[in-house]
Amino acid sequence: MENNNTNFRRFFGASLTILGVVVVLFALVAFLSEGKAVLGLHVSKAESAAPFIVGMIFLVTGVNLVRES
């Protein structure tokens, strides 16, 4: 049972890490886009802070899950 739990934590941690990287990259591109649409979304510079923070939380949590399992 321990092995299944470890595999799940690694898979979930890797998924969170990938999702975090994608969201952080989206936030950075939105920040640099100067008001243009990014992936069909209009995101201002001030609004790009929220996806960046959420992405960093996903990224750090995913890395910690992979490292501890």
Please count the helical segments. Answer: 2
**Percentage beta strand:** 5-15%
Described by the principal axes of the CA atoms, the overall outline is elongated
Low-confidence sequence ranges: none
Strand order of the largest sheet: 1-2
The averaged pLDDT comes out at 87
Count of folded domains: 1
Rg (C-alpha, Å): 15 Å
Largest sheet report: 2 strands, antiparallel
Helix-strand sequence: HEEH
Q: Please give the number of β-strands.
A: 2
Q: What structural class results from the helix and strand content?
A: mainly alpha
The span between the termini is: 14 Å
Describe this structure in words.
This is DUF3098 domain-containing protein. It comes from Spirosoma pollinicola. Keywords: Membrane, Transmembrane, Transmembrane helix. The chain crosses the membrane at residues 12-33, 48-66. The chain is mostly helical and 69 residues long. It has one domain. It contains 2 helices and 2 strands, in the order αββα. A two-stranded antiparallel sheet has the order 1-2. β1 and β2 (41-42) form a beta hairpin. The longest helix has 31 residues, at 2-32.
How would you summarize what this structure contains?
By secondary structure, the chain is mostly helical. It has two helices and two strands; from the N terminus they run αββα. A hairpin with a 2-residue loop joins strand 1 and strand 2.
Write the layout of secondary structure elements.
Elements: H1 2-32, E1 37-38, E2 41-42, H2 49-68
Organism: Spirosoma pollinicola
Keywords: Membrane, Transmembrane, Transmembrane helix
Transmembrane segments: 12-33, 48-66
